[in-house]
Write a structure and sequence with these properties.
CATH class of the largest domain in chain A: Alpha Beta
Structural class of chain A: alpha/beta
Number of domains of chain B: 1
Structural class of chain B: mainly beta
Largest interface: A-B, 35 and 18 residues
Distance between the termini of chain B: 41 Å
CATH topology of the largest domain in chain A: Aminopeptidase
Radius of gyration of chain B: 13 Å
Number of helices of chain A: 9
Number of strands of chain A: 16
Strand content of chain B: over 45%
Helix content of chain B: under 10%
Number of domains of chain A: 2
CATH topology of chain B: Rubrerythrin, domain 2
Largest sheet of chain A: 6 strands, mixed
Largest sheet of chain B: 3 strands, antiparallel
Number of strands of chain B: 6
Shape of chain A: elongated
Strand content of chain A: 25-35%
Shape of chain B: globular
Number of helices of chain B: 0
Order of helices and strands of chain A: HHEEEEEHEHEEEHEEHEEHEHEEH
Oligomer: heterodimer
Chain lengths: ~350, ~55
């Protein structure tokens, strides 16, 4: 059983309260031969291999969790607790795998536990992406020990605000609430049109009505909608914003924020080949997965041209739920896979 | 080097510098195939691509 994993899950660390967990991980890595420190963003960073190595494998996990502390306990081979799946299991598997093997010549391995992945800021990953330019990168998120995540959808939030002078409720004009509802239906119809002919959900633009409210100040009525979009790789947040603006009433106000491009990696590169071979070495058949959410892969993928995948033990359906738990056998299997990947990092001639 | 598609049996010609884990496409049936062994050259169906929600 992994002491590191259990100790780290015990250190409840919602976004912006990661300090004790970061200190613990840095101390753990230092005691296992890493050169480790807390960086300027508050991330836990540890390196094995020479600092001036020609090539860098970045293993970027996140150490923060969503709010909602859960009792930490082990029962029948499962670790229960907030962050066990999302994503301390992945981060600890990274650290334990990197600690357990000899780092191949020409390589260094960096294990980073980023802060604020669960916050809109993604502060930790933004800092890391400016500090490093790796040759290969594994993001720590729960793909399941037998699967490799190749991509995450993008994201956008849009606020829509429309006001109209108050009229008597018996007047024939539609209320602002009805106008807001009609706008939402227009957005849905537009999305359906965009998605026509495409069977893969990853290629769909997926709008979600997060909120719709009306208010009145005695002179005018106002409707306010918050619409979230999950974006395919071929549509950027600004593309969506421009299209939706064309659907809105001319005097409506639109505010776009939380803009994140989708990321989809190649399935035939050095890193993917290494992952597939490592998973098969455990006696199982690997799978690929495309995720509907976002992760730090979106943040660093916008800057780093290197091969990037996401990998880690656990069932992402348990992310953010009160039933969050991680199977410890699967955790051990993921460590074995990651050790294989590190031990078989390609020689310089194959990069 | 030559081998057979595990899906349709068509002959597949593979370059000498093929790598373990590499994904090839069968030109006859379009199946994606993964090189799982180099000696002897062995192919299997490439990983299925699944979709999932969450992080």
């Amino acid at each position: 059983m992994s002491d590191l994993l259990i100790e780290l899950v015990h250190r409840f660390s919602p976004s912006r309260q990661e300090g004790p967990a970061v200190e613990y991980l840095v101390d753990w890595m230092e005691s296992r031969g890493f050169s480790s420190h807390v960086d300027q963003a508050g991330n836990a960073v540890g390196m094995r291999g020479p600092a001036d190595a020609s090539y860098t494998l970045m293993m970027l996990g996140h150490i923060d969790t969503v709010p909602g502390e859960l009792p930490v306990h082990v029962d029948q081979g499962w670790l229960y607790g907030r962050g066990s799946v999302d994503a301390k299991g992945s981060l600890c598997a990274f650290a334990e795998a990197a600690a357990a093997v000899d780092i191949p010549p020409d390589w260094r391995v960096v294990v980073a536990g980023a802060v604020e992945e669960e916050a809109p800021t993604s502060k930790g990953a933004h800092h890391i992406r400016e500090q490093f330019s790796p040759d290969l990168c594994i993001i720590g998120e729960p793909s399941g020990a037998d699967r490799v995540t190749l991509g995450y959808k993008g994201h956008l939030l849009l606020d829509y605000t429309l006001s109209r002078p108050i009229t008597h409720t018996s007047a024939p004009d539609p209320s602002v609430g009805a106008r807001g509802a009609a706008f939402w239906q227009t957005v849905l119809a537009w999305a359906d049109e965009q998605n026509r002919g495409s069977t893969r959900q990853f290629d769909h633009v997926s709008p979600q009505l997060r909120a719709i409210n009306t208010s009145s100040d005695g002179l005018s009525d106002t409707v306010h909608l918050v619409i979230g979009f999950r974006l395919p790789p071929h549509l950027a947040p600004d593309d969506i914003t421009a299209a939706v603006a064309g659907l809105a009433e001319p005097d409506a106000e639109l505010h776009a924020y939380s803009k994140t491009n989708a990321y989809l990696g190649d399935k035939n590169n050095t890193l993917v080949r290494g992952m597939l071979t490592a998973i098969r070495s455990t006696g199982t058949r690997p799978g690929f997965v495309l995720k509907g959410g976002t992760s730090d892969m979106n943040v660093v993928g916008a800057r780093w041209p290197c091969p990037i995948v996401a990998y880690g033990p656990g069932d992402s359906h348990l992310d953010h739920t009160p039933n969050e738990r991680l199977n410890l056998d699967e955790y051990d299997r993921a460590k074995t896979v990651l050790q294989h990947v590190i031990e078989h990092l390609p020689p310089a001639s194959a990069i | 080097m030559q081998t057979e598609c595990v899906e349709c049996g068509a002959v597949i010609t593979v370059s000498e510098d093929v790598m373990q884990g590499e994904i090839l496409a069968c030109s006859d049936c379009g199946a994606e195939l993964e090189v799982i062994e180099l000696e002897p050259l062995t192919l299997d169906l490439a990983p299925m691509e699944m979709e999932d929600w969450g992080e």
